[in-house]
Design a protein that fits this description.
heterodimer; A: alpha+beta; OB fold (Dihydrolipoamide Acetyltransferase, E2P); Ribosomal Protein S8, Chain: A, domain 1; 3 domains; six-stranded antiparallel β-sheet; B: alpha+beta; Ribosomal Protein S5, domain 2; four-stranded antiparallel β-sheet; 30% strand
Chain lengths: 228, 234
Amino acid sequence: MAKILVKERNVVVPGQELADGMDYLPSEGAFREGEKIFSSKLGLFNLDGRLIKVIPLGGKYIPKKNDTVIGRVTDVSPKIWRIDIGWAFDVVVPLREGSRDFIPNDADLTKYYDIGDLVVAKIINVLSPKIVDASMKLPGCRKLGVGRVIKVESSRVPRIIGKQGSMITLIKDATGCNITVGQNGLIWISGEDSKKERLAEEAIRKIEAEAHSEGLTDKINNFLKESK
Amino acid sequence: MAYTKRFDGRKFDEVREMEAKVGIIKRANGSAMFRTGKTIAIAAVYGPRELFPAFLQDPKKGKLKCLYDLLSFSVTERKRPGPSRRSTEISMVTRDCLEPVLDLTKFAYTGLDVYIYITQADAGTRAAGINAASLALADAGIPMKDLISSIAVGKVSDKIVVDLDKEEEDHKDGATDLPIAMSVRTGKLTLLQMDGNMNQTEIKKALEMGKKACEQIKEVQVKALQAKYGGAGK
């Protein structure tokens, strides 16, 4: 008889036994050895049907397909832009993925995005850690204007966004700021004045610090109401 | 003269008081401190990041690089800063003992840097360094099959002891040092060195005692990792 040895949302460490028996399947952050399933990461235990998953609590951002990321343009060549998103290697945006508008083959690419510009891009292909392609064609992808950018742990991003964006909507509504969250942990905030931007930043920092605790939405809601 | 009572009053199979802390260096991707008695080691992990020189980049898996060093003020006689024959060797054995539990296949072409510094040395520094490095790697979110726990066992005069301190290492009748590192889950050793003389039965006895000590160390390590996120949970 298969059994689960850890409770939901408990902190597990590498090498910890999670389940015994063949009824469960190891997913991200877990592996099988013989009949047993072990954790391979420091994280929170999560059981989804028969799938055993460990949600990582720390570590560097690893690019995944369909992630929206914020990055800085580091290099412009005749046919590509290179963007630093905090990963070991820069990601490449080819000319044909550069914009929703048509870009002629001989265009000066610095007119679209120059070195040092902050952009929102979507990762469309991860061939190997070294070859990651991104696109700026998709909705939401653009060059970022005036605002501030803060860096948070990439593992806390799902908590900052919340279920179906509930948490980030809460902050947006309370502060009236425009906020774009990159999966790589960079967050762009732009509001009417710096006071509101600072409040949004404080709220995000609070989520980052308490990401592993429960009832966070209520806490942030109270925090935003008190600060008003 | 036989060694009947340990200098600091411990039992022969008793380890020194241990303490571990995770996440001590903010700018690192993962970091940890490990202390046994008066020996303190800190470790920081950076990466996965771009690996230089580029010819070292492996298209199959990431590369682990370790650097172990004593800080100049960590020992009684000032240690000349910079790499030495000893620190280069310990860096190498540390890397080799951590590699078997790491899964770096998802980090092809990249490098993972582990820096281990001893801020206070009282024997057993490589073991403390390995314990700290193992914690730092887990903190950095690197996939691992198990934590690595390490301890120095040995023989002082005619007695087999666990976790020697500097005073015992310098015992006038001579001492043998046998550092081990192991994955407690599988019971497999990943480091085994010996400096001195011991016969087969003595080594077997020492390894048995070392394995028990490693289990205690792992408990401390697990607690330290969970403590960073407010304990194991309900």
